[in-house]
Amino acid sequence: MSQVVKVGVVGTGIFAKDRHLPSYQEMSNEFKVVAAYNRTKSKAEEFAKLANLPDNKVYDNLDEIMNDPDVDYVDALLPVQFNVDTVKKAIAAGKPIILEKPIAANMKQARELVELSDSTELPIGIAENWLYLSCIELAKKHLPRIGDVVGFTHNSTGPFVTNNKYLATTWRQSPEHIGGFLSDGGVHQLALVTSLVGEFESVSALTQQVREQSGTDDIVFSTVKIRNSKTIGTFTYGSAFGATDKSVFLKMYGTKGSVVVELSDKANPVVKVRVGETAETAGAEEVYPVSQEDSFGVNDEFLNFREAVLKKDKKLFKSSPRVAFHHLACVAAFLESSAQNGNNVTVETI
Ligand SMILES: NC(=O)c1ccc[n+]([C@@H]2O[C@H](COP(=O)([O-])OP(=O)(O)OC[C@H]3O[C@@H](n4cnc5c(N)ncnc54)[C@H](OP(=O)(O)O)[C@@H]3O)[C@@H](O)[C@H]2O)c1
């Protein structure tokens, strides 16, 4: 296999054109898109023009692209109810595959996908670019300074945006995936929070549907207990409100201070640290700008997957199906808890 890894793109919709292709093109020493397949062929042809693909590399079906010997790995960007079947085809063809988040449409499929991944040495990844945000490493560096993390507050709230191009996709308006936007966007937030405070053990949550266009519940307010730890916190998510500011932060409270990841201004994220055991001994607030590149983690995610493919070592890829399983399991637990009027629910494990 050459050092330029050759990618076959399946599902040439919005995110394939707006983010995956530009990322591959920015890293042309490492990647080349060599083939495409889309259910509606005209959209694959449009994509092929942008990617400079010859006509014979725009395929009519999934099997053809999976079995193309020029393709080193497949990158699938589909409504996630198709992830399991797409992985089955990739395994049958002996191709590594990375699929867009969330891992699957429900927990049964998510379990099946983890089991499929466990059954092969092929790298199988779930693209969760938030796992690669630079603020995570920066916050991790400062966390030991604040003693034991005993609590956290995560908030991701914003106004409803009607001209959102993602909202216009029919599969999002009538979601087959549990939680609709709560899983579509919420797994990003869960990737950030669980990377820093640990996996959720149990939740008490209330969810609601605010906007008809969301297709299902679109806001969640919850309390959380972290697994194997005394840490407790809150997780709030929703962009279905009336006019309000975009407010995205994770505040972690320790016995000797606090660390805040502040992402409200996506272009200028910061990590803020305060050290001191009490108000009287508190030091001044330290503010660290985060250098976040434009792809918001996607480039690093692809480089990480490339390494796993080149070294034929699936363990090298951080965003494994098992990691992504937990994020969807949290959403499933929010929904189950809410259906029981906020009863405490244990998050499913695998
Ligand atoms: N990481 C992120 O920040 C991020 C951001 C956006 C999206 N995503 C993920 O990217 C994926 C695609 O999202 P998108 O926003 O790009 O949506 P999109 O534009 O609707 O693209 C979905 C693609 O799937 C194809 N498709 C739909 N139903 C199909 C079926 N029954 N069989 C085969 N193909 C089918 C569509 O083909 P047609 O052209 O025939 O409809 C289309 O090309 C999703 O998994 C989403 O979660 C991730």
Automatic annotation (TrEMBL):
GO cellular component entries: cytoplasm
GO molecular function, one term: nucleotide binding
GO BP of this protein: NADPH regeneration
Location of the Gfo/Idh/MocA-like oxidoreductase C-terminal domain: 145-345
Domain spans labelled Gfo/Idh/MocA-like oxidoreductase N-terminal: 5-121
Name recorded for this polypeptide: Gfo/Idh/MocA-like oxidoreductase N-terminal domain-containing protein
Organism annotation: Vanderwaltozyma polyspora (strain ATCC 22028 / DSM 70294 / BCRC 21397 / CBS 2163 / NBRC 10782 / NRRL Y-8283 / UCD 57-17)
